[in-house]
Each structure stands twice: as C-alpha cells, then as structure tokens.
Amino acid sequence: MKKKTYKFAMFACCAMFLLFLTTNTNADVAQGRAFLFNNNGNPSYSDIISANNEFKGAVSANPTDQEANLFYSVTRLLASALESGSGSGLETLRDLFEAIGITRNTNTRISEGLPFDPPSKTPEGNYNIPETIPGDEELQAFLAGPFADLLDATIANLSVIDNSIHITLTSPETGFEAVEIDFGDVLIYKTSLYAIKSIVLVLNAYNLNVDIYELVNKMNDGYLQIQRDLLDKYQDLLKLRPSGTVAAALADSREALLSCIEAYGNSLDYIKKESDAQGDDLFYFDSAEDEADAEALLTELTELKDSFNENRVADLDPSTDFNCIFGNTGKDPLDIREVLPEFDQYNEIVMCTFPGPPVLNGIFPSFQTNDDIRKELDLDNPPCNKADIDGDVAPFGNRDGIVNVGDALVTLRFALSLENPTAEDIAHGDVAPLDASGQPNPDGVINVGDALVILRKALGIISF
C-alpha cells in the first residue's frame, strides 16, 4: 500500500510540474501574441521586441512548443533588425544597417512606416557613403558569425514543428480578416531561410576586399571603371579564399541549397493536398496557373538537386553543371576572378577575352569558347577564331564550306538589305577591309566591300 501511495504521489508531482510548464508556456505565448499583434495588428516596434522576449521565455520553458518556436523564429529576426548590439563591432542587423547609413528614425508603429530612413544623399542625388561603412573583413565576419548564427537559430526553431501545427490569427490580431497558419506556411518560411543561408555562405567563400568608400565616391563622380578601378587595382578580388575556408563554406552552402529545395518541395506537396478552404491561408495558390508555375519551378529545382547528388550536368536550358560552381568529385569550384573577361573604358565586356577554354569554368557545357558565347548571345562582333572569317555564307541559311560566286551574291544581298544576315552570317561574311598582309580585318558590318572581297576570293585572285 505504501509503494502505491508513493508512486501515485510521484506521478501527481510530475503531472503538476508539466501542467505548470504548459500553463507558463501558454501564458508567455499569449502575452507574446498580445505584443506582436497589439492595436489590431499595428504594434509599436518596442512591442515587437517585447514579443520576442516573451516567445524566448516560452521556448526556454518548453523547447517543443511549436507555436512558441514559430513566433520566436520570426521575432528574433525582427528583433535583430530593431536592436543594437553591445557596441563592439557588427552584432545585429541594425548594427549593419546603421554602418552603411540606414538609420533608425522616429517612427514608433508599423502604420507610421518603416523604422529606418534610407541613406542620405549628396546634393547631386548620389549615395552619401558614411565613413563607418564596414570593410570586407568586418562584413564577412558578421555574415559568417552573428548573422549565420541567427539564421541557424531561426531554422532550428522550425525543426521542432510538424504537420500538426495550425494557428489562427484572429481578426482583432490582424486588423482585418482572420488568417490561418499551417505547416505549408512554415515550410515556405523555412525555404526562404535556407535560400538566404546558401547565398551568405557563398559570399563567404570569396575575397571581397575593396575600398568601398573610394569606389562609391568614384561611382558618384561618374568615372568608375571596372577594369581599372576594380580588377586591375584589386588583384585578389573575387578569388576564392584559402582552401579550408572555401571547402567548408561551399559545402555548407550546397547543403543549405539542397535543404531549401527539399523544404520547397514539401511545402508544395502539403499545400496541394489541403482539402479545406484556402482563402484564409497565409500562402495559397490563386489560380491553376500559379500552381503550374510552382510545379515547373520544382521540376527544375529537383533536376538541380539530382545533378548535385549524381555529379552530372543538370538538364536545364541551358545545360548547367552546378558542380563547377560548388565543386564536386573531379570538379573544381568556381573561382570567379579566373573566369572574368576584360572590360573597356565604358565598362562593356571586351569580347574574346573570357579565359579558357572552357570558358566560365565549364559551368555551361555548350559554351566552351569565346565564339560559343558570341553565337549563343547572337552578337554582331567578329569571330574570336579568325578561321571562321572565310566568306562562306551560301547557300543562304545552309553554308556548304565552299567559297564561290554564290557566296559573293548572298553577301551582296545582305549589303543591299535584301536579306537579313544572322550573327553566324556576319561572322563568316564580314571579311573587309583586308589588312596589309591581305587578311580580313572585320569592321562589324556587311557591305558591298565584303561582297567584292569574297568575289575576288571565289575567282582565285586572293586567298585567306
């Protein structure tokens, strides 16, 4: 009898303790919602910070509370944007905003507008860059440290949530109609967080060390040149960082991207299977066309994911080898600096200057040479491979590899605007004028001079 009494007492104590935790958690969540949706969905910005503290307390008391975790995941991001750090460097999003000139204004409630003013401008209307703007090392330390930790924490909050979650934001809370939040909405939110994380990790793999203050001032003055002021001056800009850092950053970025794709696929599957009315859901499809677009995107993302897992080219348009961006077995990650072309004084790409082959690190298998890029983009500039400048343009639309009088006649029709030449036609038919050695020196247009040069070649008077 005594053992039974003891066991019952222990059970009762445990039950009361769990009830106490649940009651406290529910109270914290209720108070957090009261702050977050204060004044009919028009809270003050200080209310949002207070709500974050309440949800934090609820999660601390009961780490598996799904509603508390969801709201805490959202408000901790908002709080980072509203609260300053300790003052020792960049610790919060607000610290970053203010360092780049986005300053907190006097707005106290959401209805009054955003809590930040955009950066100030010069009398000419240009960005007035503050002296506090962070450099490469400070910015990347923030992205890899406090911001990455914030993203991981918000994602961790969502990891305890399953498809049983259903939250209704009432009309008094929203200020208009009630809104239902379910697992599909949580997955959409998780998708966006993973996408941001993947981008941030990619940024951390590259050298971004430039004097931003100087560059923005040159941009404001209108004489910034990409080649002179960026690529020539900063020889390590956009190069991969030390190998250990790169491997970890790119591997984590790829995993975040794969998690993003998985979350998106699960969200789409959940939303499609919902049988209740969708009009009050936070996310839903307005039309069959919207759903079809979402399905098409998922198909492409799934192909991307499979190409990672199978270390192959993704069957997209154009075919793309994403493994040549992130790296994989037998494939080096993309070193952006090593694939960049040269730029002229007007910041236009100087054609035929992409390093390679393969150009662009082989990311696009159909683009192996500079001429492949020229043809794909249908550019009018002369071929990079001078062997293509041969005068062979006939038969029209179906070159036969032979230069004869027919090629001269087709070129003359181009010159007289009787036919419209393609980029391929221009590449082969723009042969005039000839240089001092009798070789073509294309001028970018087809005219009567080109027809005459091709005729002379067809008659055996000249050769090239």
Summarize the structure.
The chain is mainly alpha-helical. It has helices at 2-36, 38-41, 45-61, 66-82, 93-99, 136-158, 171-174, 183-203, 212-221, 226-231, 243-273, 288-309, 323-326, 336-339, 370-376, 405-415, 423-429, 448-458, and strands spanning 103-104, 116-117, 166-169, 179-182, 342-343, 349-350.
Written account of the structure:
The relative contact order is 0.05. The longest helix is centred in the first third of the chain and has 35 residues, at 2-36. This protein has helices at residues 2-36, 38-41, 45-61, 66-82, 93-99, 136-158, 171-174, 183-203, 212-221, 226-231, 243-273, 288-309, 323-326, 336-339, 370-376, 405-415, 423-429, 448-458, and strands at residues 103-104, 116-117, 166-169, 179-182, 342-343, 349-350. The radius of gyration is 31 Å and the shape is elongated. It is mainly α and 464 residues long. Helix content is 52%, strand content 3%. The model is unreliable at 1-23 (pLDDT under 50). The chain has two domains: 37-309, no CATH class; 388-458, no CATH class. The protein has 18 helices and six strands.
Attribute tags:
single chain; 464 residues; mainly alpha; 2 domains; two-stranded antiparallel ribbon; two-stranded antiparallel sheet; 18 helices; 6 strands; 52% helix; elongated; disordered N terminus
Low-confidence runs? 1-23
> What fraction strand?
under 5%
Q: Would you tell me the structural class of the helices and strands? A: mainly alpha
The overall pLDDT average reads 89
Taken in chain order, the helices and strands follow as HHHHHEEHEHEHHHHHHHEEHHHH
Number of strands: 6
| Ends apart, CA distance between termini | 111 Å
User: Which strands sit side by side, in order, in the main sheet?
Assistant: 1-2
